[in-house]
Design goal:
nine-stranded mixed β-sheet, alpha+beta, binds flavin-adenine dinucleotide, D-Amino Acid Oxidase, Chain A, domain 2, FAD/NAD(P)-binding domain, globular, 3 domains, 8 helices
Length: 449
């Protein structure tokens, strides 16, 4: 980024979080004439967007089938409509800025019998939701596959280049983007909000949009409706590289696509997801890398990384007021590893609401609060019972441990050491801290002592 900008006295909107959701929202608001500041705790690209696998697809693994468990078909159809409008917007945006987004086939494939059952159920769910999907047993994948759902004309994007374009555009529209400024509090004040930052500022704004991915800074108990799951990705040289973008429906989810870097085509793989802070992280990562090396013996590892995203208990993202009826603090989270594909729709919806435009017909699919979430109450209860169990087991184990692990500054969970990334991770709600105790990811906002 260029030289830091001066802060203003006040803004129409402060957006907390400089990932895809925050920057897209900021851009639309700035274009709509709002004075906007984006606060990014780390560097642009350090969050989940910059570490995603870059697929912008309406076929999203087995998501539609899962969403139908807790949502009526009419709402799932609107989720697809939202994604379609957002995807078209992002395609136009990238093409208009010289960022190549060639069309690709997306697939949900199956290697195992269970995977095939899920993939066929996804085929049915996707058809019902209005997608022009087909079933095939003839895929480009170079290993035995039982079959796959396919959808034409999806695309992939370099997420870091996309974020950098968005930053430049926000600034060109008169907005501000401040890196290495962490919001530590968002409160109502008068008829607006105040946003406190870790460098001692108290910014005034009419509205705050909390786009931090993890549910930090919010009332509304979002952390109890979300589960943070971490997963791994890697690039390999010298291996087969696909033309399409593929995701398996099997228990061991695998993602495959190609990436072109400086004249070289690499294979990108992803998978081995798990709840953050639970299990040995390096073992999860190695499971993915070993699979890639066995499947593609000529492959040479180039780079490996991991990231996490929030899965909502009722399957669809939360976009809107942080508590019902509050029109000053808005939230956008719960993309369930599909935020690159869905954040554009979330931003279009927030912009319509905050600029007073007409709400899209599909708005109902992306709601922060909705009666349909009652349907997900058993899943929320099960997830929170598991959190309670993890809390109790963690503390019992800690009493016996010689070298006691630190406690999370969010709700006191016993942290586990992440041996893949040298961080302390919380098995309750996914907060992460560096080895020096600094917050890497919330909902925690205070460092370890
Ligand atoms: C391994 C992996 C692969 C993925 N691949 C895909 C894919 O192929 N296609 C797809 O559609 N989706 C994919 N996703 C999901 C997608 O990347 C996310 O849903 C999306 O990037 C979320 O965007 P965001 O803006 O909400 O979060 P982020 O990109 O994480 O942005 C949030 C930002 O907020 C900042 N922040 C946090 N707290 C504060 C604070 N207190 N103050 C200031 N700033 C703060 C963070 O530093 C961060 O930069 C993937 C996810 C993972 C984990």
């Amino acid at each position: 980024m260029e030289a830091p900008q001066e802060f203003s006295e006040s803004y129409d909107v402060v957006v907390v979080g400089g990932g895809a959701a925050g920057l897209l929202t900021a851009l639309l608001l700035a274009r709509g004439g709002c004075s906007v500041a984006v606060l990014e705790a780390r560097r642009i690209g350090d969050g989940t967007t910059g570490h995603s696998t870059g697929k912008v697809s309406l076929l999203q693994g087995t998501k539609l089938r899962r969403a139908l468990r807790t949502n009526p078909l009419s709402v799932v159809r609107r989720y697809v409509e939202a994604g379609t409008e957002g995807q078209a917007w992002l395609r136009r945006y990238c093409e208009g800025h010289g960022l190549p987004v060639p069309g690709r086939v997306a697939s949900t494939y199956a290697v195992t019998e269970r995977g095939e059952d899920r993939a066929r159920a996804e085929l049915e769910a996707a058809r019902q939701a209005g997608l022009a999907v087909r079933w095939t047993s003839d895929t480009e994948l170079p290993f035995a596959v039982r079959g796959a759902v396919e959808l034409d004309d999806q695309f992939q994007v370099d997420p870091v280049r996309m974020l950098n374009l968005l930053v430049a555009d926000v600034v060109a529209e008169g907005g501000q983007v401040h890196e290495q400024v962490r919001a530590i509090g968002v409160h109502h004040a008068g008829d607006g909000v105040r946003v406190r930052t870790d460098d001692g500022r108290d910014l005034r704004a009419g509205v705050a949009v909390v786009a931090t991915n993890q549910p930090a800074l919010l009332r509304g108990l979002f952390f109890a409706r979300l589960q943070a799951t971490r997963s791994y990705a890697a690039t390999f040289a010298g291996a087969w590289a696909p033309a399409g973008m593929h995701l398996s429906a099997d228990d061991d989810v695998r993602s495959l696509r190609s990436v072109d870097t400086g004249g070289e085509r690499l294979l990108m793989v992803g998978g081995a997801g798990h709840v953050t802070g639970r299990g040995a992280a390096a073992a999860h990562r190695d499971r993915l890398l070993d699979w890639a090396r066995e499947t593609f013996p000529d492959a040479t590892l180039r780079e490996a990384w991991s990231a996490q995203d929030q899965s909502p208990v009722d399957g669809l993202p939360y976009v809107g007021p942080a508590v019902p009826g509050d029109h000053r603090i808005h939230v956008v989270t719960g993309f369930d590893k599909w935020g690159l594909s869905t954040a554009p729709a979330a931003a279009l919806l927030l912009a319509a609401d905050l600029l007073g435009g007409s709400r899209p017909d599909w708005a109902d699919a992306l709601r922060s609060w909705s009666p349909r979430q009652v349907l997900a109450a058993p899943r929320a209860a099960a997830a929170n019972a598991e959190v309670g169990w993890q809390l109790a087991c963690g503390h019992a184990g800690r009493l016996l441990a010689g070298d006691r692990p630190p406690l999370c500054t969010h709700l006191g969970g016993v942290l586990t050491w992440n041996d893949a990334e040298d961080s302390w991770d919380c098995p309750l709600h996914g907060s992460r801290f560096g080895a020096d105790g600094e917050v890497l990811e919330g909902p925690a906002t205070r460092p370890l002592r």
